[in-house]
Amino acid sequence: MEHTEILTRYTASFIDELSKNGVTDAVISPGSRSTPLAYLFAENEMIKEWVILDERSAAFFALGLAKKTKRPVVIVCTSGTAAANYFPAIVEAYYSRVPLVVLTADRPHELRDVGAPQAIEQIKLYGDYVKWFHEMALPEATPKMLHYVRSKAARASHIASQGNAGPVHLNFPFREPLLPDLSIDNLWGDQNTQSTAPLMEGSKLIDENQVSQLLKKLKSKAKGLIVCGPQTEDRLAEAITELAAAWRIPVLADPLSQIRAGNHNKDMVIEGYDAFLRNEKIREQLRPDYIIRFGAMPVSKAYLFYVQQHTETFQIVVDNTIGFREPAGNQTEFVFSDPVQFCRILSEQADYSSNPDDHWLKLWLNMNCIAKKQLTTGSNGNITEGEAVRCLLDVIPNESALYIGNSMAVRDLDTFFMTTSKKVSVLANRGANGIDGMVSSAVGAAATNEPVTLVLGDLSFYHDMNGLLATKHYNLNLTILLINNNGGGIFSFLPQASDKKHFEALFGTPVDIEFKQAITMYGGHYEQPKTEEDLKKALNKSYQHQGLSVVEIHTLREDNVKWHQEKWETIQQEILESED
Predict the structure, then answer these.
(1) pLDDT tens, 343-402?
(2) Residue-wise over 49-74: b if at least 16 C-beta within 10 A, else e?
(3) Residue ranges of the domains in the chain?
(4) What is the pTM for the complete model shown?
(5) Which residues pair with 173 in a beta bridge?
(6) Region 219-224: what's the mean pLDDT?
(7) How do 424-428 and 400-404 pair as beta strands?
(8) What is the Cα–Cα distance from 448 to 444, expressed in whole angstroms?
(9) Assign residue 298 a region: left if phi > 0, alpha if psi is -120 to 50, beta otherwise?
(10) CATH topology classification for 208-375
């Protein structure tokens, strides 16, 4: 068997096995050394190929697609710095538990470390930010080696998906010639054979003895609190709210918890806590006996201050597999168990486990009612950043996805996202919390053909404008609410904002760009409303438009800070007066 046929059968077997293990999408960036992978992914009818020119954008596109589908997505690139451009998205995928299968083409061993062009050290390039690395063998087509290549494909897709999902990296050394032969017989191998390495992994379940021990610790504690941070398990919202109703304790629901939206019961849900937990006296009034937390740490810094003020509180963090997400440093008992099953077992033990304090629940509900009243009313004529988010939530379509940017965008969502019966899934890159790759991530989510709205600031938009190319190339529907305060708005809330000498150059960083021109370049529809009513009309119009729609509003950073602070102060003052 000559070289081309060996190369073809080896690579085709790998790709066929990925398909058998549930991979449906591959994001490919152009390059010569990756030709065998690119050609055969494009040829495989079971896997959809997406061609994204810039590797950095491609990796974030795959990240968004994997977040939305909850399936591993493959990314393919050539050798050299192309692979290095994947790094930011891989870091984000690792920390936010998103399954990616990273395939980097490489020079063969004899061309490494000898000055050959486009050859860098790719062995374990991503360090500890991947769950598994494997240097693939040079292509061979013996039965043993075809079994080998299939086993590695099956293992890669399994490791990426199971436990704490995340990226895996396989490095493929290829010798020239690189062009595969797509005409060979039985290109994909025997399609009647089962997957080479069928893998199963059960859920972790808490047993009766463990439940009993936990309930004994909670028996004398009346002031309980459930907290749900960022998470994507579809069934968990209903399970948590059922537990809260059974135990009659409040639920602090992060905007990324998937609890604020949907048709589950929300009677115990507290969504306005970020506004009133900013006050130390209020935090002291709300001293809890215990906290049960699901998901990652909430976005709210006010909540962080709350748990840091009550370090003695008995805290349980529930995760479906081993992980230690407790940045406050408080003493914590970790429960590694299926969170849905955990909630349902505890719901059945409501009479035995706790002694609810009705005054405690009413206290939280009353404070939340005051916060919601202030946050959902009032306008000063010009659109503020918070009001822009509030307008969006009024008109966002049912059964759609909201991809939220970092910095101010996610914090305004935390403040103004009130409970709704709409089914809106909320996605964000809160693993490393960077502003890079936001556009590409949302475009990747939009590749599922479900309505997606991206909310982000001007710096995030500027960082990743080239991500818009995919919307034009694939005619993807995406609405972007661009909040332009001409710089890094979140820094205006920090102490360095008082330093007038260096603040603008180092932190404000205005870009002074007319984004309309870039949006037009990528074939997008653009509007810039001036009032809340016009904003709602523009957003509604965008959902009827095919392709990219960008609705931009302009705000002033200093006015935004003042407006937010006045809202928070009004809420806190009313709460404190009501408790006197």
Answers:
(1) 999 998 877 555 677 899 999 999 999 999 999 887 666 788 999 999 999 999 999 999
(2) bbbbebbbbbbbbbbbbbbbbebbbb
(3) 3-173, 208-375, 385-567
(4) 0.94
(5) 106
(6) 90
(7) parallel
(8) 8
(9) beta
(10) Rossmann fold (3.40.50)
